[in-house]
Design goal:
The complex is a heterodimer. Chain A is an alpha/beta fold. Chain A is about 55% helix and about 10% strand. Chain A contains 20 helices and 12 strands. Chain A is elongated and about 115 Å long. The chains are: A alpha/beta, B mainly alpha.
């Protein structure tokens, strides 16, 4: 771990610790002085004996303003973690956010007297303190804009921690802006000791700090307890608190500006209506808090088991079990990259090592904990592969595809898809294997989970309504049968059947002058697919009768296109990733254009006439050219 | 990674300077930062009171006066500064492999520090004012008393180090507690020089 690979929460907590170490002695000093004055009869704050009352405020606030950052900076750290994880994007301006944390801490020591503008302190100190106070808005703004830029065009997941983080952004901006008003001398003198100040402190401390604490509690609850909380109750908690909070504290701005003083038990009649609204609105927060405690207690006792990494986070805590075992890691993990490289292919945050007794070294494939992936038609779906890839690059896992199949044809098709997925994942050094099972799926999964010592299970299905598995309630039944954490990925029919454009998967261009549903051609492609995983593009060169715009030519083209549809459908059904196209002319003539468009790694020429091969080789741009002769019917 | 050095990835070498610092020395440095702030809070009270005052030291309302012994305390300051050099010399001896020299250096340092403390207590006895005598008395006793407490703690740290040095537990490169005690002693010394200049001289 180096400082520039530290998660921002660690930056925030380290900075907060520095504030505690260097700030707290001042408040200790002020308390010593008070103690001495009261007990020993000294004269620190006795102006008749040369002491100074205001010096108490100076010494107190010199600590107590940095203390508000002690309350806020860890929250900033939590927000950085949560926003990056649920936006699936690297945090925007990592270094700027880290530096702004330190800047807030350092500047925080130079603004204390803005709490004392009307205390009777030396007037010359007012303007410098106003200036430094407003300057603090800059590093805070850096953070706010970095967070917004992190959200920008991210893949937002609105889980409970995320809605709390977004709620924080909303309320903290309001609190920050009223802070600028209070830091500015003329407006502060006007609104000192009014409810405007009460509104401000609640927007930054409740809407700020407490919201981040809720975000953090929900974010790490699965890690801390090993159980998942109830997402629905979490949302209820958020919305009741969010609405209740704003309804309670927003009116206080107006009350304050109209002159309602703070710290006074009684108030003028004209403030009564708003005060009633405030009191009623605060009940919403009470209800929200009750829901929160209910959710925490019940989920802790009997919530569904949490996977190691429910949010697909990338920092170290997600590399250990939920809850973590004693000592967390068998050996100190090696941090090799940044903590927020979401969506960056091949990026890794840390390497986990095997214990020394086992010989040390990076955990081998066999030792890595297993995740079962239950899927059939959806194995090569992009959503599923992305999920597996993110887990695989963020933690040390091996994946076992468990796919049910009946009959030889289906078995072969499923095995081909598993091979494709394994090949794609191995390109990113993610270990995976596949097994095809028959009979009762739930029993087979339970057996596989036991054999592989699986830690969790991912189930991929078609969307609700299209999925036979969801109709059978398979997700819950597998969860019950295995007792393991189960997560569910939805894959659309289109993406499960689409051609795979994956890095590292060889692209084979099939140039044929036969119709694409030609049995011999399809058999040839399947044979090639079984040799090593690849994706195929079938280009059929259709000899179109002249004139090219004539009805006859169109008829011929339509027939060829339909044949391509049938052929590709057939290949997909047998587990081969394929797409197709029809081009006018001969094989030799189509070769140049097809190579330009598809940039294949391999070309398979399937024609009656071997002389075409030479022409294709000329146009191949370095791709390996192979040829076969088709005996069947030809186009023409 | 322990004994499996060959398995250690090369990135391990790229540690920051911070983590190569002795943990005790690092802790003491941070602690001293915290201590500085405590002194700063009392100096703040001092400077605010002094800037408010028409006259400093103020006119004493009793029979005595706010006079502080500049000369004797000056000599006492020299004693404390000298003790900083003796502990520096003691550490040099250890670096040269001379453990006996280290022990002698520590003993001299402890004796000088004790002398400083005795002279300071003697000064308290003979001063004509008490902590209850106006802000001047309050802040004078609080600042010098706070510092005296630190000298006392420093002496304890030095005696602890002496004890371990006697048992031969320190060697060059393996003297974390000694280094920490020595840094602390230098800090106590520097604070006193500042205090003497501000409270006694200026």
């Amino acid at each position: 771990m180096t400082v520039w690979r530290m998660p921002l929460l660690v930056w925030a907590n380290a900075t907060t610790s520095a504030l505690v170490v260097f700030g707290t002695p001042f408040v200790a000093g002020s308390q010593f002085m008070t103690l001495f004055d009261r007990v020993m009869g000294t004269h620190f704050f006795d102006w008749t004996a040369g002491g100074d009352v205001v010096s108490y405020q100076h010494i107190f606030w010199f600590y107590s303003h940095p203390a508000v950052y002690i309350m806020m900076l860890p929250g900033f750290g939590i927000i950085s973690e949560v926003l990056a994880t649920f936006s699936r994007k690297p945090i925007f301006g990592y270094r700027a956010v880290a530096f702004s944390t330190v800047a807030i801490a350092v500047l925080g020591f130079g603004v204390w007297a803005h709490h004392m503008f009307v205390s009777g302190m030396s007037p010359w100190l007012r303007i410098p303190m106003m200036v430094t106070t407003v300057i603090i808005a800059i590093p805070t703004g850096v953070k706010m804009f970095s967070w917004l830029a992190t959200l920008w065009r991210g893949k937002l997941h609105f889980n409970t921690p995320m809605v709390w983080a977004l709620g924080f952004l909303f309320t903290f901006v309001i609190g920050g802006l009223s802070g600028v008003f209070l830091g500015t001398l003329p407006t502060d003198i006007f609104s000192s000791d009014t409810y405007y100040v009460v509104a401000h402190i609640h927007y930054v401390l409740f809407g700020g700090s407490v919201f981040t604490i809720f975000a953090g509690v929900y974010y790490w609850f699965p890690k801390m307890t090993g159980r998942m909380f109830d997402e629905r109750l979490g949302k209820w908690h958020f919305w009741l608190t969010f609405v209740g909070f704003n309804a309670t504290f927003l009116p206080m701005h107006w009350l304050g500006l109209q002159g309602m003083p703070r710290r006074v038990a009684d108030y003028d009649d004209r403030f009564a209506t708003w005060n009633l609204v405030i009191s009623l609105a605060s009940i919403l927060m009470v209800v929200g808090t009750v829901i929160f405690f209910y959710n925490m207690i019940v989920s802790w006792r009997s919530g569904p088991r949490a996977p190691w990494n429910p949010w697909r986070g990338r920092t170290l805590e997600w590399l250990v079990s939920s809850p973590p075992s004693i000592f967390n890691f068998d050996a100190t993990p090696q941090v090799v990259g940044g903590p927020y490289q979401y969506g960056v292919a091949g990026a890794r945050h840390a390497i986990v090592f095997a214990p020394e007794e086992a010989g040390g070294g990076e955990l081998t494939e066999h030792q890595a904990p297993a995740i079962l992936v239950v899927a059939r038609d959806t194995i090569t779906g992009a959503s599923l592969l992305d999920t597996v890839r993110e887990l695989g690059t963020s933690g040390h896992w091996r994946f076992v595809f468990v796919s049910p199949a009946e009959g030889d044809a289906e078995r072969t098709a499923v095995a081909r898809r598993q091979q494709l997925a394994t090949a794609i994942l191995s390109e990113q050094a993610i270990a995976s294997s596949g097994t095809v099972v028959g009979g009762d799926l739930i029993q087979s999964v339970a057996r596989a989970a036991q054999d592989e010592h699986a830690h969790e299970i991912i189930i991929a299905t078609y969307p609700i309504g299209e999925s036979e598995w969801l109709r059978q309630d398979l997700v819950d039944r597998i969860r019950k049968a295995t007792g393991l954490p189960v997560s569910h990925v939805t894959v659309s029919r289109k993406e499960s059947r689409g051609s795979l454009a994956e890095v590292g998967l060889p692209h084979v261009l099939v140039l044929a002058d036969a119709d694409a549903d030609d049995e011999a051609l399809l058999a040839e492609i399947r044979r090639r697919a079984d040799r090593s995983p690849a994706r195929f593009t079938v280009v059929v060169a259709a000899a179109v009768p002249s004139p090219a715009w004539g009805d006859e030519a169109n008829e011929r083209r339509r027939y060829a296109v339909e044949a391509v549809h049938r052929g590709v459908e057939d290949l997909q059904a047998s587990g081969v990733s394929a797409q197709g196209e029809v081009m006018d002319g001969t094989v030799a003539g189509s070769a140049r254009e097809a190579v330009n468009v598809y940039r294949p790694d391999e070309i398979l020429v399937a024609t009656r006439d071997a002389s075409d091969t030479a022409a294709v080789e000329k146009a191949s741009r370095g791709a390996v050219v192979d040829s076969i002769t088709l005996g069947g019917r030809t186009v023409g | 990674m322990g004994s499996h050095a060959h398995d250690a990835p090369p990135a391990t070498a790229a540690r920051s300077g911070m983590s190569r610092m002795n943990i005790g020395t690092l802790g003491m440095t941070i602690f001293i930062g915290s201590e500085l702030m405590l002194f700063a809070s009392f100096f703040t009270a001092y400077f605010i009171a002094r800037s408010n005052a028409v006259e400093w030291p103020p006119i004493f309302e009793g029979t005595e006066s706010f006079e502080v012994p500049k000369i004797i305390t000056g000599v006492n300051t020299a004693i404390l500064v000298f003790s900083s050099f003796t502990i520096w010399w003691a550490e040099k001896r250890l670096a040269a492999g001379d453990r006996q020299g280290l022990i002698h250096g520590l003993i001299v340092t402890i004796m000088l520090g004790t002398t400083f403390l005795i002279i300071q207590i003697n000064e308290y006895i003979h001063l004509g004012f008490t902590p209850q005598d106006q802000m001047f008395g309050t802040i004078f006793y609080c600042l010098t008393g706070l510092h005296g407490a630190h000298v006392f703690i420093g002496l304890n740290a030095l005696m602890y180090s002496l004890n371990r040095a006697r048992r031969g537990e320190f060697s060059h490169g393996n003297s974390g507690p000694l280094t920490a005690a020595s840094i602390y002693w230098h800090f106590v010394d520097v604070v006193w020089v500042f205090l003497y200049v501000v409270v006694y001289l200026v």
